Amino acid sequence: MGVWEVIKVGDPRLRQRSRSLPRVTSEIRQFVDDMVETMYVNNGIGLAAVQLGELLNIIVVELPEDEEIPGSGKLYSIINPEIVKVSHETEMGVEGCLSVPGFIGEVERPVMVVVRGLDTRGKPIRIRARGLLARVFQHEIDHCNGVLYIDKLTAPDRIWTVKEGEEEQAEVEQALPAKTVA
Ligand code: ZN
After folding, report:
1. Considering the domain boundaries, does residue 44 fall inside one?
2. Catalytic amino acids?
3. Sheet bearing 46-48, strands edge to edge
4. Quick one: pLDDT at residue 179?
5. Does the pLDDT at position 175 exceed 60?
6. Domain limits for position 154
């Protein structure tokens, strides 16, 4: 197990497409463990492999039950994730990204998605998600395609700076829903 450095916007790898894996090996399982540990250390709720500099189609997502306790939610580790269905209904939400530190921005996304992929044993899985969970899946799968949330802002000025570690105090409009850091 180990914590990796998260690469930041400006690094060209964040703009590349990750490649799918033909099978899930023990090396991949080890790497997924490192992804999870890195996500926890950074208080993230999602992470894509490219954020550690590896252009592999892998995401990890976990919404903690208790915000103060990383690892308190249901963990999803998905190899070769793809979105196979989205709702027509969309909603606005505020997102942040460990690769775009110091900012949060407003993005409109489908409320519901169905994600397909493999679990860490290589077994096919299919997950139906709504709300914040659906949002995080979309954010992470975008990373696998070289897309960042800042590409999808509802308007160019719908982005705000936040001080590191003080996201909760960010003075964003009160009507905005909770932030996402992924
Ligand atoms: Zn991100």
Report:
1. yes
2. 140
3. 46-48, 58-63, 74-86, 112-118, 124-130
4. 56
5. no
6. 12-175
pTM for the predicted model, two decimal places: 0.91
93: CATH: 3.90.45.10
Residue 2 maps to a domain: no
State pLDDT tens for residues 67-125. 888 888 999 999 999 999 999 999 999 999 999 999 999 999 999 999 999 999 999 99
**d(CA 75, ligand 1 centre) in Å:** 17
User: Do the domain assignments include residue 42?
Assistant: yes
Per-residue DSSP letters for 48-100?
A: EGGGGT--BSEEEEEE-SSTTSTT-SEEEEEEEEEEEEE-S-EEEEEEB-TTS
Q: How far is the CA of 147 from the centre of ligand 1 (A)?
A: 9
pLDDT in tens, 8-57: 999 999 999 999 999 999 999 999 999 999 999 999 999 999 999 999 99
Q: Measure 96 CA to ligand 1 centroid, in angstroms.
A: 7
Domain assignment present for 120: yes
